[in-house]
Please model this.
Amino acid sequence: MLDKLSSSLKDALKKLAGKAVVDREAVEELVRDLQRALIQADVNVRLVQALSQAVKTRSLDEQPPKGMSVREHVLRIVYQELLRLMGSRAEVALGPQKILLAGLQGSGKTTTTAKLARFFQRKGLKAGVICADTFRPGAYDQLSTLCGRVNVPCYGEPGEKAAEGIVERGLAALATSEVILIDTQGRHALEKDLIDEIIRLNQISKADHRWLIIDAALGQQARDQARRFHEAIGIDGVIVTKMDGTAKGGGALSAVSEIQSGIVFIGSGETIDDLERFDPDSFISRLLGMGDLKSLVERAEEAISTEEMDVQGMLRGKFTLRDMYKQLDAVSRMGPLKQIMSMLPLGGADVPSEAIDVTSAKMARYRVIMDSMTAQELDDPNLIGGSRIHRIAKGSGSSPDEVRELLKYYRLMQRALKGMRGGKFNLQRMMRKFSGM
Amino acid sequence: MFDGLREKLRSVREVFGTSIQAASTPPAAEGQGAGAGAAPRTGPGLAERVKILVTDGELVLTEKQIQAPLQELEMVLLENDVALPVTDEILRRVKEDLVGKHRSIGQDPGVVILAALRDAILRVLGEGFDLPGYIRARDRPVKILFTGVNGTGKTTTVAKVGHYLKKLGFSVVIASGDTFRAGALEQIGTHAERLGIKIIQHKAGGDPSAVLFDAVEYAGAHKMDVVLADSAGRFHNRVNLMNQLEKMKRVMKPDLVVYVDEAVAGNDAVVRAEEFEKLVGTDAVILTKADMDMRGGAAISVAHTVGKPIMFLGTGQGYDDLMPFTPDLVVEELLGGAL
Model:
């Protein structure tokens, strides 16, 4: 459903593609689609209205810079306006500090606390954690288990009812830690007692930072909730969690624009290392459901050196089993294929879902099977016939059906990559546009 | 809850009212010629006015006349987390109900609109779900599996439902099916202990299906009425985890699969509810954290999308903060109940 929506946005952009002058009607249509896309992504309705008004006026009033097409001009304005809402990324100081974490119930505070401890630990700082959640059963067990896995000291007093005392004693107990993270109980703006409690915790701990944890799926009320938290303790950073689901995080955007503080981190998975620094480009791309080339290129650079994979060659349709082997190898370092695919601006290409829904276990299996192929076969998969399939199956300890499945998957990928190249997809141009902004 | 949405809906109703009243005034002045006041001027306006046929004291509304209030209604619904497709659906129904229908002039516009709106929302909400009645009608033990994404409040909800059923005199056993999240065993263990409910647990990291199987066996052997199975939160786009859930379902053979989501979730609520329904099925829905906000639009959205009845609303952190969901009451509350 969401994909349908973002493609309608792309259609609207396409209509602008061939135009030399900014066409009022086309811009209005684009703005309408933009509105729907943003509302669908949970951006606050009032914010969407203000934003679309700004985009409309600027698109029609401003002259597109020389050499920039109308489409790029409008897209750039949309991007800039969104960026303005989001503010800059909040910086994380790598030094001694105390951080108080607050948020709604179930937003992922405890998991995020452990992830943050891990982050600072990896940066070479001595981290310590205080569990000030006195309400939820198992909260201390959860935090101490997570911290125990990475050898971060965790202070807590299961059974104690007053969080204030725990924080006081915890700060004393963790005096040697450089970074102290304080996990608190989940609360929402309408619970006055709990809001009062976090105000007291903030005073007692004299926290240097107060970060608000927001679930990516949070809807229209994100703005109000964020404001109340901000009024209570002065939030100076936001962490958006559960970005590995399908939620777009528009609620978080509304929150950030309301309290005028940047997003610090993005939580993107269940394990302790799944914490990313916030990147406005990829956030906006996701919000609009449009490709995020910049971060793809960055990620790809990290994971694969250039000689390892000939991307241009692949797009030209030169895609052998050998490339696929490297790809599968790289995928384990780059993250799931679906995520990578979602970052590519595949406007025209329809990548079949079978090609994407390959589980990591299957990926590993495929690699084993390919290990049993000859160099010739890897370079020219067409060689592989019935008897070779049997040999490969025996060699890799798999069934002929599995080998056939692998070959089918290979053909799917080959077709998908060929499709990506067709017509509207122009890698260089896209790169230029993204780097120009 | 719902206070915010109710406030807004009331004001929209008034806008509808004035526009309908405006629609019924110009025909009265038609005999005199030039239309005055809010009515459109002559020229194109005349054609407009001809559409408002007044035959035997009846009045027909055109789409144009209710466009402005409809747009306002759309904003109100969207602002209150009613998902976009669901908003469209409600608008379509209200429009269908109002446009082109003959209304007698004497009828109070407020009543007309209220009826249309009530009808549209009621149809979108679907029916409630009477859990105690369901359990009484089934063979024991009745097995209930709770599913949902991370952090929606499944574990707390299992405890609350256990408490609710226990109060009604049912014997309950809880299966601690979340063997993944650190602290989950302790969390549900503490709840069960406080409530005096039997709990079946394995070690952390164990196979959740095995826990569920044991709980069902235990319930059978001890003639218990209900098995409530907690499960680890999982995202619908994780193939492996969804397969695990499917296995849990296969092993446990639940009578009911209850999907738990939070009432504060935005549009994604619809996406994931759909995926869960598709992959493991959903028989009923529980919406948690309904106390966080006065609006509750997500409740309407999820109910409509999943097409499954809402069983309970979670309204706070205490064990008693669980409210059976009755659509009539919700609509009554939303629209102020005044007819």
About this structure: Chain B touches chain A through 52 residues (CB under 8 Å). The first strand of chain B starts at residue 54 and ends at 55.
